[in-house]
Amino acid sequence: MSNKAANTAVKLLTATTGVAGASGLYLLYDYKTCHPMRKIKYEPREGLVRLHNSCVNQLPYSVYTKMSLRDLESFNGKNGNGTYFSAAGKIYDVSTSDMFASAYSRWAGRDATVALAKMSLKPEDISRTDIWKSLDESDQKSLVSWLSYFDEKYYIRGRLKEYYEEDNNGSGNQQ
Questions:
Q1: Strand arrangement, sheet containing 155-160
Q2: Nearest Cα to 138, choosing from 122, 121, 117?
Q3: Pair type for strands 66-67 and 155-160
């Protein structure tokens, strides 16, 4: 959407009141401020995902649906189950993604925290829990960028128990 088109849309939406106007303004805001990777092929429905996850991310850990790594394995897109994966403790529903049905299918039903942080497709970096909390600064930045993108694109369906409830000291990470 060009700036001229965006300005025209704002003028039209300003004249409109109610839910339709508010929805249109939110979608315009979403487009202008979304993750750069989403702009490549912008889909308005992802704006609703972003709004949903913005609210969900504010909830305390205790209210989330919690899954273990073992529970997550059943959400591999087979046997009628959806396709979920986790990253940094968040469980994303990627059932609608063609990429997760093909190129990233190895992450289906698994944890991709280390693989995303290290930009790795190596099988040994999938569901790797030994260095979740000790990634170096560069890996952390990479992971944060991926999480920002996923938060805007895929619904968060829960939290991964092991990421929040277990660490080296047994004290947990209640983010």
A1: 66-67, 155-160, 90-93, 84-87
A2: 117
A3: parallel
Predicted TM-score (pTM) of the model is 0.78
Among 91, 94, 95, 107, smallest CA distance to 56 is for 91
Domain residue limits, the chain: 58-165
How many other CB atoms sit within 10 Å of the CB of residue 144?
A: 13
What tens digit of pLDDT does each residue of 26-42 get? 888 888 988 998 889 88
Question: Which tokens go with 54?
Answer: 């913005």
Question: Quick one: tokens of 118?
Answer: 């290290």
Q: Which residues of 44-61 are buried (b: 16+ CB within 10 A; e: fewer)?
A: eebbebbeebeebeeeee
- Could you give the CA distance from residue 151 to residue 35 in angstroms, rounded to a whole number? 10
Pairwise CA distance, residues 65 & 160, whole Å:
9
**Class of domain 58-165 (CATH, top level):** alpha beta
| Residue located via tokens 């850990």 | 61
Q: Higher model confidence: residue 145 or residue 10?
A: 145
